[in-house]
Amino acid sequence: MNKSQPRPQRLKQLFVHTSQGLAGRLARESQIVFGYRTDDPACEISLTMPLRAETYAANILPGVLRQNLPEGYLLHWIHARFSKTMKMDDFNILALTGSDMIGRVSVSLDALGVEHAKPEDLSALLAWKGTESLFDYLAEKYAGSSGISGVQPKVLASAYGGKETVDKGAMKDRSLIIKASGADFDGLAENEFHCMTMGKLAGLDVPQFWLSENKEVFIIERFDIDPQSGTYLGFEDMTALTGKQNDGKYDSSYENVAKAIDIFASNRYKTPSLTAFFKSLVLSMIVRNGDAHLKNFGLLYTTPQTDDVRLSPLYDIVCTTAYIPRDTIALKMNKEKAWPSREQLIAFGKAHCKLDRPAVIIDEILDVVASYVPAIETGEIWQKMQPEIAKGLTVLSTPR
Fold first, then answer.
1. pLDDT (tens digit, 9 = 90+) per residue, 319-362?
2. Backbone angles phi, psi at 395, to 5 degrees
3. Mind listing the pLDDT tens digit for each residue in 40-74?
4. Which one, 110, 140, 257, 369, has least CB within 10 Å?
5. pTM assigned to the model
6. Pairing of strands 120-121, 159-160
7. Is 285 a member of any domain?
8. Looking at residue 358, which CATH number applies to its domain?
9. Which domain holds residue 273?
10. Distance between CA atoms of 389 and 386, rounded to whole angstroms?
11. Other C-beta atoms within 10 Å of 138: how many?
12. Residue from 95, 49, 94 nearest 67 by CA
């Protein structure tokens, strides 16, 4: 950079909002400092940050804000377009992407909040036949304001219509997560479509989702919106709840995830949430999903004060061994990262998810996956997934 060019901007403060109103101010001082500017407990920003007069200070962003920092494609996209004018640290990146994040918390440069782009036509997105890549078009429009983590290319976008959608008249427009396969993982969108379909057939809570006609884009409805009020629900993933940074998402265990669910879930949701967690874990083991890390499990709630803290719906599940044959599980189970046996998974369900009959759950999901027949014309990725899923079925099956 020559002397005539301005130095990259380094922002000093941001305002933090919730669905219930302005929460407080985030400032860059000797540390990152957050202070509440409200007396309303409904505006608390996190399950781990209760309302108080004293500020919260740390060397990193609060977990509920840090969890949505972009990774991979989005992070490279932001660096390429903003690094000449803004210093690319977490605080500034939050300022760029924090107006629209998963969950009920957002940030802005002033106390008034922000405006958002007009919605897309979902039917047109699914049948995209433009000369440029659909994802490139969406990235140019939304990537700079998409607060969503993950290495896979993805953006948050708004849409309306679509023959399979329900009436969203009262719902805010920003309701979709749109993902592309990416150059390194051909067929990833279709891969996720198959895995999520199996999850849905297995009775797991799954947001509505679609696969584009060319199989290059997977679109899933955001699960953090209250269908009755249209307001955003609170969401905190397991990195936020266990104090990990995003790059520590593989540095934990499934036992710790179960423990966090038991600690934070409301009493009436503990058993359903632990059961749903176990079901999702069983599905991941069968389809050989080696990327079920801390960021792929989270809790939903209206506010930290409401008695409705529960496990979020299923998301981000793919067969990773179709790309990485020697891949293994993302987090430790029984102190090791090895695909568990049926006996180990049953023991985990009893000891950590407090289930009386985990074997029954395993068998039910085995039946669903074994009988799955794609309802779409499949691409090459399905041929690669089948033998991997067959391995998962064999390991967890037993004569009945």
1. 999 999 999 999 999 999 999 999 999 999 999 999 999 999 99
2. -65, -40
3. 999 999 999 999 999 999 999 999 999 999 887 77
4. 110
5. 0.87
6. parallel
7. yes
8. 1.10.1070
9. 234-396
10. 5
11. 23
12. 94
